[in-house]
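Q: What structure does this chain adopt?
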Amino acid sequence: MSAESGINTFRDADGLWEGHDVMEVATPEGFAKNPDLVYNFYNQRRKQLLEVTPNKGHQILVELEKNYDVTIITQNVDDLHERAGSQTVLHLHGELTKARSTKDENYIVPWNEDLDHQNFDPKGYPLRPHIVWFGEAVPMLDKAISVINTANIVVIIGTSMQVYPAASLFQFAPQDAIVYYIDPKPAKAIPPTIKVIKKGASKGLALLKEQLKSL
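A:
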């Protein structure tokens, strides 16, 4: 979703995210080994976020709220869905614009400035980026599953279908739910019942919007 706004992903770059090995900047081990590198990495991502805007795909999802009860479940850590106007967004992998305690995972605060080891929670423990790193539990997963459980239509947008548990969410949809998969390079190992739209997010969503009119 966010690639068209200018935010890089690491899916097509051999595990690199903005030139960094994801194991160095997106794991608890990487943070323990070199916290300054991790703090700086997310500070730069936060600054980058201020330079981009929601794209047409984000806007179409907002438009769909006029006719559908839309809940967005995203792996993206940016706030572009919210800035576009989407009302209900679940962030599976955390949010760049928040920080949390390294001790109490339930202490989460809005954060739009630089973050480092000199920022603390009320009990004196350092703050860290509010990002779900590889190897960590996904706090919003159960809520996401409950949403999928009651969905009539599931739309998968721009994902390699390789990052679990997010990649398995569509399997929790009711048997009679219609599942769409929008991606210019769709994963091959998907059930034949899924309707594939082989396009980028914006063009794919525009086509989906038209197709939904015939349902």
